[in-house]
Amino acid sequence: ILCLASAAAALDFKYHHTEELEEYLRGVHASYPSLTHLHSIGRSVEGRDLWVLVLGRFPTQHKIGIPEFKYVANMHGDETVGREILLHLIDFLVTSYGRDPVITRLLNNTRIHIMPTMNPDGFESTKVPDCYYTRGRYNRNGEDLNRNFPDAFENNSASIQPETQAVMDWIKNETFVLSANLHGGALVASYTFDNGNPVTGSLKGYSRSPDDDVFIHLAKTYSSNHASMYKGTGCDNRQTFPEGITNGYSWYQLEGGMQDYNYVWGQCFEITLELSCCKYPPADQLEKFWRDNKIALIEYIKQVHLGVKGQVTDKNGNPIPNAIVEAKGRPHVCPYRTNEQGEYFLLLLPGTYVINATVPGFKSMLKTVEIPDNTGNFSALKQDFSFPEVSDQIRSRVASCPKTPLYQELARASAAVKPTIHILVLVTAMLAIFK
What we know:
Elements: H1 2-9, H2 18-31, E1 36-43, E2 49-55, E3 68-73, H3 81-96, H4 101-109, E4 111-115, H5 120-125, H6 162-173, E5 176-183, E6 186-191, H7 212-225, E7 245-247, H8 248-251, H9 258-265, E8 269-276, H10 286-302, E9 308-314, E10 324-327, E11 343-346, E12 351-358, E13 365-371, E14 381-382, E15 385-387, H11 418-434
Parallel strand pairs: 3-4, 3-5, 5-8, 6-7, 9-14, 9-15
Antiparallel strand pairs: 1-2, 2-4, 6-8, 9-11, 10-12, 12-13
GO cellular component, one term: extracellular space
GO molecular function, one term: zinc ion binding
Protein name: CBPM Carboxypeptidase
C-alpha cells in the first residue's frame, strides 16, 4: 500500500501523454480505492479512452443531497495547461483528504468528476508545441469540439463527434450542478451565453442568461482567487478584461459551445477558464501554472453549494422525477426538472427568492426562502416540497427539450446577419442626416 501511495504521489511537472496519464490515474485509484472511481465515458475517434476520475466519500454513485461537480480540460488538444493542472489537482485532493479539514469536508460533501482530456487525439497529434494555433486544436476528424454541441440559438450543422456525444451522454446520466472547462490562449473567466440574439441582448453586444448574476459571481470567484487573472490585463495591450471576466458573446460569438449546452440542456452552470496566454507552454512553466490556479480551483468547486436544494415527493414520500423547480423571475428556456430521486439543485446568490415547484397537471407550490451563503458549510439551503394530492401511481411525464434552437427570435433577427442590420441602420441614419 505504501508503495502504491508513493507511486501515485510521484507526479512530475511535465506533459503526460496517453499511456502516462492512464498509468497515473490507475495508480491513484489503486492507492485510494474508497475515495476514487475511475471510468471511461467513451472513446475518441482514434479509440483512446476518455477517462474520468471521480472523487468523494461516495465516488461510485450519486447520493441524495450531494451535488455533482466536474472539471473538463484539453477540449482543444493543443491547449495543454488545464490537462496537467487537473492531474495536480487530483494529487492535491487525495493527499490532503483526512489531513486538511477543508479538503476533507469538501470531498465528504461533494462528488467531483475530473476529465483531464476530452481530446486526447488532438493532444497526441501536436508534435511541436506552439503558443499559437495548431491543427491539434481539432479532433481526428478535423472538428472543433467547442463548436460541436447543439445550439440554443441556431441550427448547428456540424456532425456530432464521438467525444462530443460521450460528454452529452455523461451530462444526461449525472446530476451535474456546476462545471468549468479549461482552455488556453488567453487569461480570463468567460461565462454564458456564448451565442445570442436580440432577446438575450445581442444587439447591445452582451448575451444575458436568466442567471447572469450567478455567472458573474462564479467567474469572479475564479478570477479573484487566481494569482493574476483578476488584474484583467489579458495577454496583450489590445485585449483587456475588467476583473478578469467576460461574457462569452461580448468577447466573440460562438456557435455550438459546451458551456451553453451545459446550462440549457444539462441544468449545469459552466464557465470557460482560459488559463494561459501560450496554448502549449514549455513544461518548465507548469509548476507556476499550478501555483497560480490552485486556490482558484478549490474555491470554484465550493460554489456548487450555493443556493437551494431539496426533494419533491408525493403524499407517500416517494420522489417525483421531472417536476419543474425554478426560482420565480428566472425561468429557463428548458425548464429545470428534478432527477430520478426527485432532487433539484438551484444555484442562487444569497437573498430572498420564491421557489416554484410544479408537477404538470397539479397546482404549483410556492415557497419563499431566505438563502444564506452556505458555501463555507458545504451545503446549500435545503427546501423540500411534498405534493399531498399526488400518488405514486401519478408521475410527471418524462420531458425532454428538443435539440433545435430554442430562442426562436433568432429566425427574425439572426446573429449571423447582425453586421448587415447595423450597416443598414447606419446608412439610413446617414441619409436622414444628409437630407
